[in-house]
């Protein structure tokens, strides 16, 4: 199954996102986050590991980070979604997965539990982050106890772990980090690394690096406490000339660095994907889907 890598922006430091969709339909994709999907109304077909699973109202699914999947809801369907960073869970819990991703929501009082998680995220009361983490952890433990589960394959875990470590390495050394540096960091040959990175991210390494450097430049431009000239920012972000920086910056952001709005956020959408270089950024969710407020 061909799939695209989806990344997510969060409105707060807590790496948890929730939403509800009418007629949710998306194409095969994967993401680092684990995902809970509740079919509140109607039905949906979920393609998971090349197997089509039909889920009706009252069913739910738990999908681990890194698992390729797609969702096709009928026109009357209403789906509630919660995605979260699996690092919020202890390692001995996040390393497990359900043998079959579909289960009955009522068995785990999922309607109420997902409502409580969404409420914590929305209201952001004191200690809401720890409270949300504890609610998610308790829910996942209940699922692993109540449903048949198994350890994820070591190769499966290694693939995601290696990719996440590489992203962290790039984030710390983005200015002049090279293709050869990345291949050496992962221990892969450059030829294999090129194919592997494209499969994982949905884009070439050079395009990803350009996107990251522009993202860092946007952060620096917004930092009024340590205001720097645009030329200095361009150099610190790894661009050899100001002309090159201005051209690439405008291609990605749609604006000149000197005229960037103070509230501008790169890809500030509920769901964003690393897809610089395409005419239109890839979004696994089709336009027929409606994200409810």
Write a concise keyword list for the protein shown above.
9 helices, Arc Repressor Mutant, subunit A, about 290 residues, 3-stranded antiparallel β-sheet, single chain, 6-stranded antiparallel β-sheet, Jelly Rolls, alpha+beta, globular
How would a crystallographer describe the biggest sheet? 6 strands, antiparallel
- How many H/I helical runs? 9
How many distinct folded domains? Answer: 2
Order of helices and strands: EEEEEEEEEHEEHHEHHHHHHE
Given this structure, which CATH class of the largest domain is correct? Mainly Beta
N/C terminus separation: 32 Å
- Would you tell me the overall average pLDDT? 85
Q: What is the general shape?
A: globular
Total number of β-strand segments? 13
Provide an overview of this structure.
The protein is α+β, with helices and mostly antiparallel strands and 293 residues long. The chain folds into two domains: 4-151, Jelly Rolls, CATH 2.60.120.280; 155-259, Homeodomain-like (Arc Repressor Mutant, subunit A). 39% of the residues lie in helices and 20% in strands. The protein has helices spanning 91-94, 110-123, 128-146, 154-172, 179-186, 190-201, 205-222, 230-236, 242-253; strands at 4-5, 16-22, 29-30, 34-41, 43-48, 51-56, 59-63, 69-73, 78-84, 96-98, 102-104, 149-151, 290-291. The strands form four sheets. It has a six-stranded antiparallel sheet with strand order 11-7-4-9-2-13, with helices on one face.
């Amino acid at each position: 199954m061909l799939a695209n890598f989806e990344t997510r922006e969060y409105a707060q430091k807590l790496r948890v996102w929730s939403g509800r969709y009418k007629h949710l339909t998306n194409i095969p994709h994967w993401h680092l986050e684990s995902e809970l999907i509740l079919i509140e109304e109607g039905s949906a077909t979920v393609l998971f590991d090349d197997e089509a699973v039909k889920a009706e109202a009252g069913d739910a699914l738990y999908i681990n980070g890194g698992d390729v999947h797609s969702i096709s809801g009928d026109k009357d369907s209403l789906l509630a979604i919660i995605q979260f960073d699996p690092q919020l869970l202890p390692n001995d819990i996040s390393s497990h997965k359900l043998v079959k991703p579909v289960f009955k929501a009522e068995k785990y009082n999922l309607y109420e539990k997902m409502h409580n998680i969404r409420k914590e995220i929305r209201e952001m009361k004191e200690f809401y982050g720890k409270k949300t983490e504890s609610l998610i952890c308790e829910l996942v433990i209940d699922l692993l106890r109540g449903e048949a589960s198994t350890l994820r394959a070591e190769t499966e875990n290694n693939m995601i772990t290696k990719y996440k470590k590489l992203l962290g390495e790039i984030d710390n050394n983005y200015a002049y980090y090279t293709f050869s540096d990345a291949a050496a960091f992962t221990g892969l040959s450059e030829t294999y690394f090129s194919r592997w990175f494209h499969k994982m991210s949905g884009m070439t390494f050079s395009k990803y690096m350009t996107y990251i450097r522009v993202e860092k430049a946007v952060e620096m431009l917004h930092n009024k406490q340590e205001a720097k000239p645009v030329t200095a920012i361009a150099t610190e972000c790894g661009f050899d000339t100001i002309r090159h920086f201005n051209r690439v910056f405008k291609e990605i952001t749609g604006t000149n660095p000197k005229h960037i709005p103070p509230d501008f956020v790169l890809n500030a959408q509920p769901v964003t994907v690393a897809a610089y270089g395409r005419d239109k950024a890839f979004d696994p969710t089709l336009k027929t889907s409606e994200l409810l407020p």
